[in-house]
Amino acid sequence: MNWRNKCTRNTLMMKSSMIRNLVEMTKSVPGLISFAGGFPSPSTFPVAQLADLYREVLHEDGKNILQYGSTGGEQELKQAIIDQEELDITTDEVMICSGATNGIYTAIRSFIESGDFIISESPSFLGSLVAFEAVGANILPVTMRSDGLDIEQLKTYIKQNKSEKIKFIYTIPDFQNPTGITMSNEKREMMIKIAIENDILILEDDPYSKLRFYGTAKNSLFRIAREKFNNKSVVISIRSFSKLLGPGLRIAYTLADKNIISLMNSWAQKINVTTDRVTQRVVSRYLEKGLLTDQIKHIKETYKPLCDQMVSSLDKYMPENVKWTKPEGGMFLWLNLPESVNTDNQFKKALNHKVAFIPGSKFYSQGSEKYNGLRLNFSFPTAEQIDEGIKRIADTLS
Ligand SMILES: Cc1ncc(COP(=O)(O)O)c(C=O)c1O
Questions:
Q1: Which of 79, 135, 234, 320 pairs with 47 at a CA distance of 20 to 30 A?
Q2: Domain boundaries, the chain
Q3: Average pLDDT, stretch 184-196?
Q4: Dist. CA 131 → ligand 1 center (Å)
Q5: Fold designation for 3-45+294-397
Q6: Is pLDDT of 184 > 60?
Q7: Cα separation of the two ends of the chain
Q8: Is there an atom of ligand 1 within 6 Å of 103 CB?
Q9: Rounded to 5 degrees, what are φ and ψ at 345?
């Protein structure tokens, strides 16, 4: 395939640039209310605290931290993360990465060979589906139920495809992007058991679990595998500061068995060299000063009323045949419309009504698309915009 064909090929990468274009397009329409982006609210960014910390760390240790550093990240930040999360692990089981996106890519790059399979929740986060495609993996899509992926379908895939070809089960267990669904404790345990029995790695993508407004926190797959199954290697967990401090920082971390971290480090050396050392030092100071707990509280206090507003506006305006998830945290909610409605078409209608969302088809792997869903983001718009925007979407359906 020559470079021209490669540029125009209809792949998931094209879908992801379509999403970026959709979000860009919404910015230029005056009066448009957008639920399309996946952006945290800028009002939650701790700008003043970070500005002070950047000044502080550069004054104190600028000559060191402006130098190249170790690929896997700064010891100081790794230890601060272990302390913050109260984890019983060592720093060689932690790797700092340039955002979760980079961690996910490095993890799969380290294990996937062209033609391997990755089992993924469906729908799922397009950024990861794109990365799976980029490394030559085939995606096996497993339908999402209200308590996490369909376990029977997962088992069937493993039975049908030689398990040694299936390298990962990819999951976003808490407040999943795009559906807002959280996996039950029973399913967490079932998934780990199945993964251990079949020697498949679980890639746990966890940017949202700390943003819980309702219900009790669930243990991560990483913790359950270690504490309940006494297994250190089955789960690779990727967590990010993007939704806690700001995605512009590009700081995230991977928790995994030390041999897996070491393999990922050797790949990262070729791709990244070092994650921004100044920002790593800033984030470690932020954690050491104990600022994250209040910051998370502040974000939850900001998002909970917005989520409540979205649910109550949906109750108020949507016709009977429209259903939606009621997330206990995170940033997204998913609408299911009647099968006859195609939200790709609905999107154009919605733009005429000056409201935007992401059509559900954009969150499915090639060939497994469903067209009657859509994703709504509640962390970015105001409560007033949410009420008016939901009314506008409902108007497009009548
Ligand atoms: C499920 C999921 N994983 C990963 C990411 C990417 O996070 P980061 O900014 O840390 O790369 C996002 C961002 O929207 C996400 O929703």
A1: 79
A2: 3-45+294-397, 68-288
A3: 98
A4: 12
A5: Aspartate Aminotransferase, domain 1 (3.90.1150)
A6: yes
A7: 46
A8: no
A9: -70, -40
Ligand 1 nearest atom to the CA of residue 240, by list position: 10
Residue whose tokens read 């009323």: 305
Q: How far apart are CA 47 and CA 138, in angstroms?
A: 41
* pLDDT category of residue 26 using cuts at 50, 70 and 90: confident
Write the residue with the smallest CA distance to atom 14 of ligand 1: 38
Residue 105: partners with Cβ closer than 8 Å, 6 or more residues away: 131, 134, 135, 271
- Asked if residue 115 lies in contact with residue 136, where contact means CB atoms within 8 angstroms, the answer is yes
Helix 151-160 / helix 185-198 crossing angle, nearest 10 deg: 10
* Four-way CATH pick for 68-288: 3.40.120.10, 2.60.40.1180, 3.40.640.10, 1.10.1240.10: 3.40.640.10
| CA 255-259-262 angle, 5° bins | 80
Q: How far is CA 225 from CA 107, 212, 220, in A?
A: 18, 22, 9
Q: What is the pTM of this model?
A: 0.95
